[in-house]
Amino acid sequence: ISGTNAHVILEQAPPTPTTPEETPQNTTPLTPTPVPLSARTPHALREQAQRLLHHLDQHPTHLTDLAHSLATHKAALHERAVLLADTPDTLRTALTHLTH
Predict the structure, then answer these.
(1) Residue 52: exposed, middle, or buried by beta-carbon count in 10 A (0-12, 13-18, 19+)?
(2) Number of structural domains, the chain?
(3) Is residue 41 part of a domain?
């Protein structure tokens, strides 16, 4: 978002099932977690993704904790990417794609 104006369109979420008959069996809806990355250059952004991928392999962590730490403790630099992941495996896949 740039400039002085920003616009957001909000819509009501679809109703959630309230009875067991309305709830699909053996499905748990997962909400994607945004995982922000930023760096000074595109090359540095790929390197950060590689380091994060290595970190996940060495230190499994909760996805929302990782996303929160990256959003609140890292500088927001010029080159940015936001990866949406609902599991650690989908985050690893997204990071792998970003490193190439």
Answers:
(1) buried
(2) 1
(3) yes
Q: What CATH number should be reported for the domain holding residue 74?
A: 3.30.70.3290
CB 40 within 8 A of CB 79: yes
**Range of the structural domain that residue 92 is part of:** 33-99
Q: CB–CB of 32/80 below 8 Å?
A: no
Quick check: is 28 in a domain? no
* Residues 6+ positions from 88 with CB-CB distance below 8 Å: 56, 60, 63
Task: Flag whether 21 is in a domain.
Answer: no
Question: For residue 21, what pLDDT is reported?
Answer: 58
Q: Give the separation between CA 96 and CA 49, rounded to whole angstroms.
A: 8
Per-residue pLDDT tens digits of the chain, which is 100 residues long: 556 666 677 777 777 666 655 555 555 557 899 999 999 999 999 999 999 999 998 888 888 899 999 999 888 899 999 999 998 899 999 999 999 8
